[in-house]
Amino acid sequence: MFDISAFVDALTFRAGYNTAIVAIGAILLGWAGGTVGTYLLLRQRSLVSDALSHATLPGVGVAFLVMAWFGGSGRFLPGLLLGAAISAMIGLACVEWLTRRTRLKSDAAIGAVLSSFFGLGIVLLTVIQSLGIGRQAGIGSFLLGSTSGMLRNEAYTLAALALFVAFLVFVFRRPLTLVCFDETFARTSGIDIRRTDLLLMFLVMAVTVTGLRIVGLILVVALLIIPPVAARFWTEKTGTMIVASGLIGAASGFVGTALSASVPNFPAGPVIVLVAAVLFALSLLFAPARGVFYGLYRARAFSRKVHRRQGLLAILRGEAIYDHDTLKVLRSEKLIHGDGTPTRAGLDAAETAAREEALWTIYARNNPDAANRAARMRLDPIAERLTAGEIAELERQFAGPSGVLPAR
Amino acid sequence: MGDFYIGLVLVPMTIGALAAVSCALLGNFLVLRKQSLMGDAVSHVVLPGIVVAFIVTGSISVWPMLLGAAAAALISALLIELVRNLGKVEPGAAMGVVFTALFALGVVLLEQSDTRQVHFDVEHALYGNLESLVWLSGMDAQSLFDRQALADLPPQLARLALALVAVVIFLIAFWRQLVVSTFDPVFAQATGVPVRLVGAALISLVAIVAVTAFEAVGAIITIAMLICPAAAARLMTNRLIPQLLWSVLFALLSAVVGFWAAGSGMALIGSGFSVSAAGMIAAVSGIILAACALAAPQRRGAAG
C-alpha cells in the first residue's frame, strides 16, 4: 500500500507538475501558518481562528451563487476565496462585537459565531445542491480540502496566494514580535497596538482562506494552532519559538502533501494535520526545553546531585548513611567502599563539598535577591557557576578579618 | 400537510427539539464556566470514536458506536488537560491541538476503511440528516395509539428522550454542587464539594448528549445548541433558573422555526426545494442570539 519510491518522488517534487506546485504552496502555507499562529498563541487568541475558518463557509456559498447567477462558472477559485474572506471578516467582527458589547466571554462568542455561520453555510450548500447548478463538487472540497483533481489554475492561484501570505508575514514580523513579546515596550516605541492586532487578524484570515481549498475549513485552524504549541516545547525564547513553529508548519505541509500524493485514499488536508500532530507528539516527548523525557531526566539528575551532596556532608561529619539511594549514588562514583566507609576520593570530595557549601551560604547571604537562583546553583561545583574573582571574594569573607570561621 | 404531518414533520421536529433542549440545558453551565468550546471539541472527536468502533466491530450498530464516541470524548478531555499542563498553554490552544488532530485521524481512518457501502461519510457526521428521521407509519393521530405503528418510530427519538431525562436527573440531583462549583469554585472546594469530579461529570454528560444528538442530527446542531441558546439566555437575566428556562425556550424556538423554515418555509417563498434542517436550526439560533445581543435587558451585565 505504501509505495516508498512514490513517496520519494513526491518529496523530490517529481510526482507530477500539479502536485509539485501544491506541495510548494503547502510548504509556504505551513510556514506562514506556523509563524502567524505563534503570534496568535502569544496573544492568547488561538481559537478565534476556529470561528474565522467556519465563518468562511457562507461566503463561499454566496460567492458560488452570485457567480452562477451571472452566468459564470461557480467554481472560479479566486471568486470563492474572495467570498470566503469577506464572510470571515464579518464573522470576526461579530466575535469582536459580542465580546466588547455584551457580557459574553470570548469562548461563548467564538462558539456562537462558529456554529451559526457554519449552519448558514450548510443551508447555502444544500441550496446549491438542490438547484443542481453544474458541478458543485468544488464546493464540498472546502469542508475537508482536497488536492486530487485540482485544476492547474487552482494550484497556481493557491501557490501564489501562499507566497503572498508568506511574504506579508515576513515583512511584518518585527512589529508583531514586539507586540507579542512586550506590549508596553512596543507602545512606547510608537507601535499602534490596535492596528497591529488588526494586522494579525488579517494575516490569520489570509492563512485560513488560502488553506481552505487544501486543508479544508474544519481543519485549517490546525495549521495555526499545532505548530506553535509544538514549538513551545523546544524553547523558552519568543524569537526561537517563532522560527521553530514556522519550520514545523512547513515540514507538515511538505511531508503531508507528499504522503497524500503517494498513498491512495490519503486526503491531503487531514494528512497534513496528522503529520503536524505527530511532530507535536514528538516535541512533547523529546524536545529539550520542556519535553517530558528531558524533564524526567533533569529531575533525576537533580535528585542525584542532592543525594551526592547530602552523602558527602554526612561523610565529613562521620555519620553513618542509611538512605539506599544516597548509598547507590556514592558507590557508583566510587566515593565509598562497598562496606560504606569513604574512599580517599570520597574524603576529598566531602571536604570540597563542605567548603563550597559554606561559600554558597555566604553568597546567598550577600545576594538575598538571587536566593532562588542560588538554591538551584549550590549543588553544582562553584567554579562552574561563579567567576574566579567572585569566589576569591567569598573565600576572603569566609576566612573573615581574623581568619576565623564566621558564625552561621 | 394533512395525514403525513405527524410522521414527516412532527417526529423529526421533535427529535431536533429534544436534542436542542438537552444541549441547551447543559450549555448554560458551559457558558458560565467559560468552557463553551469544550462542546465544540467534544463534538469533533466523536467522529474518530465512531470510525474506530466501526473498524473494530465491522458494523454500524448503535451501541458500539455510542461507546466508541463516548470513549473518544473522554480521552480527548484527558489529552486536553495533559497538553495544557505540560505545554503551559491556554486551554483554547490545547483544545485546538487535540480536537483537530483527532478529527483528522477520524477522517483519514474513514477514507482508509471501507465504509462506503454502509453509507457513512463526514458530511453526514457534520450535519446529519434530520429530514430522513421520519415516521412513515405515522399517518394520523390514531397511529399514536397503535402499538405496531409506534414500533416504527425512529429509534433516535427514544434515545434522545432518554438523554434529556438523564440531563434533567443530573441537574436536579447535583444542582447544589453544580451551581456552587460553577460560581465559586474556591468556596465549593472549601466546603467539601468535589469540584473536579463535578466538572468531569458535566463534561461526560456533554459527551453523552453530543454522541446521542450527533448520531441523529449531526455535530453542527450539537455545537450550536450547546452555546447559542445559553449565551442568548445569559443576556436575558441575571438569575440562573430563569436563564435555564430562557435557554430551553430559545432552543425550542430554534428547533421549531429552523425545521419549519428549512422545509415548508422554503416552499412558501416559492422555491421547490428544501434545505438542511440542521444548518437552518443552527442559523436560527444564531439569529436569536444576535437579537438578544442587540436588545436583551441584561446584555451589558449586572450594571447595564
Structural account:
The complex is a heterodimer of chains A (408) and B (304). By secondary structure, chain A is mostly helical. Helices cover 75% and strands 0% of the residues of chain A. Chain A has two domains: 4-289, ABC transporter involved in vitamin B12 uptake, BtuC (Orthogonal Bundle); 293-399, no CATH class. Chain A has 20 helices and no strands. The longest helix of chain A is centred in the first third of the chain and has 26 residues, at 17-42. The mean pLDDT of chain A is 86. With 304 residues, chain B is an all-alpha fold. Chain B has a single domain (2-218), classed as ABC transporter involved in vitamin B12 uptake, BtuC (Orthogonal Bundle). Chain B is 75% helix and 0% strand. Chain B has helices spanning 5-32, 36-57, 62-87, 91-112, 122-127, 147-150, 155-173, 175-183, 185-190, 195-217, 219-234, 240-268, 277-295. Classes of the chains: A mainly alpha (408), B mainly alpha (304).
